[in-house]
Amino acid sequence: MIQDISQKISWLQENPLILKGICRGIERETLRVEKNGHFSKNMHPYLIGSSLTHQWITTDFAENLLEFITPTSTNIDKLMFFLKDLHSFVASSIKNERMWPFSIPYIGNKKTNIKIAQYGNSNLGKMKTTYRIGLKKRYGSFINTIAGVHYNFSLPIKFWKEWNKQQNNKYYNDYISNGYLHLIRNYYRFGWIITYLFGSSPAISSNFIKPKNKKYIFKKYNENVLYLPWATSLRLSDIGYTKTAIEDLNITFNNLNSYTSSLKKALHTSSDKFARLKLKDKKGNFQQLNTNILQMENELYTQIRPKRRLYPGESLINALANRGVEYVEVRSLDTNPFSPIGINKNQILLLDLFLIWCTLIESPEMKKKDFLLASKNWEKIVLEGRKPYQTIYINTKNEKITLIEMGKTIFKDLKMIAKVIDFNDKNTPYYKACQKFMKYLYDPDLTYSSKLLRLILRKGIKFSGLELANQHYKALISRHCSDENLALLKKETKRSHDKQKKIEKEDSLSFREYIKKIILPC
């Protein structure tokens, strides 16, 4: 079931410094809302920079859907400090608005106007907006305003070199890429435990649900709040999470070539469903970038995916094919509603441990039936993870084990890894994070989803969300930015506006020509 990795952990104990230098980055999405909880009607604030070109503050699907992006760092405290400064900088610039603390927005009216993100008049800006128009046509507006947190993670090169020797994989041309794909397969197998612990979207506005959708038997708090009593993350269900199923696209993570080939095929294969939506509207304006299964690589929504930093104008497919996997992006994290920045340090510590564990344990190649089995486990935890005596499948024969029993095995390993990383740290932060979250296995009431559901059932989505949003706003503006980061952010704000003007000025191609050149790589 789960390989005994005590020998591998002993190897780590003999080489504790090879884990020194783990690199991390965080992307956090949050909606700007009015003080009454409704979507902000204001454009992206000029004072926080250009959403097209700012390195750290941009927008996602909607004009009011902020996205904060940290630089990568090997120091968790510095990473969190910068993320807090980003939030404080923005909070001080949107005094009449708040940042919504939940992954699921409050939709009080089905006629809520959602303005698609605008990026100016350049071809690049038009492309980004057109891509989002396509998302609206394909999946709807409400779903695309759901927010989350992405966690970018990479292990030190020194670790990979030593790990490759230990595994006797001397003849692999790209042992680092193989190592990350190994990790990714195990995240699909076992990552549901992260959703059990950190899932924070057990309830949803009734206006999200289409009248014909009767798949789930919701309980009703009031006319606007629907919930499932044991749910952890409706954001990751087919109610909320806009996704193209990787098993339907035959995308696997068994080797880099098959992954990039399958992704490339999806980018170049026409979809009858999306072709019926039409490429252009009656006025001749693009309403999708193309009618293929995926408009762009970013449209492949998965729990975790391989990534690499890109050169200017480079596609992710080409970057991965030419230079291999550099890090993984965990995309299955709900916004932590109890943190002003959507995530806390203990979560990061546990994620580090879990991703290292996914690297150490065996990871056989996955066939379609294996992905389907993993999907069944994720669905169980997403929809009823806190259900007493919940079980998960351990093989395709439908044999099961309790979540608690499986969780105990995982946490036993995590605690041993924690002791290795805590080497020479008297505060033992990793071990303490383990101890904290292990309690959640035995007491589901401690989980974020349970705490949030109790709050929503007392006050509703709107008022509980506004209460937390106001608390977070006060906390953010009371701390202010550090002088160093404030100066940096002001400089970046000016640079981003200047950069956007330069891009717009230098355009030479028509938008149609630009799309043909940029959207269909390879």
TrEMBL record:
Pfam families, sorted: Glu_cys_ligase
Keyword check for Ion transport: no
One Gene Ontology biological process: glutathione biosynthetic process
Gene Ontology molecular function terms on file: ATP binding; glutamate-cysteine ligase activity; metal ion binding
Superkingdom assignment: Bacteria
Presence of keyword Ligase: yes
EC numbers on record: 6.3.2.2
First-tier enzyme category under EC: ligase
Domain Glutamate--cysteine ligase: 10-381
Listed InterPro entries: Gln_synth/guanido_kin_cat_dom (IPR014746), Glu_cys_ligase (IPR007370), Glut_cys_ligase (IPR006334)
Pathway(s) where this gene product acts: Sulfur metabolism; glutathione biosynthesis; glutathione from L-cysteine and L-glutamate: step 1/2
UniProt catalytic activity: L-cysteine + L-glutamate + ATP = gamma-L-glutamyl-L-cysteine + ADP + phosphate + H(+)
GO CC list: cytosol
Keywords assigned: ATP-binding, Glutathione biosynthesis, Ligase, Nucleotide-binding
Family to which this protein belongs: Belongs to the glutamate--cysteine ligase type 1 family. Type 1 subfamily.
Protein name: Glutamate--cysteine ligase
The encoding gene: gshA
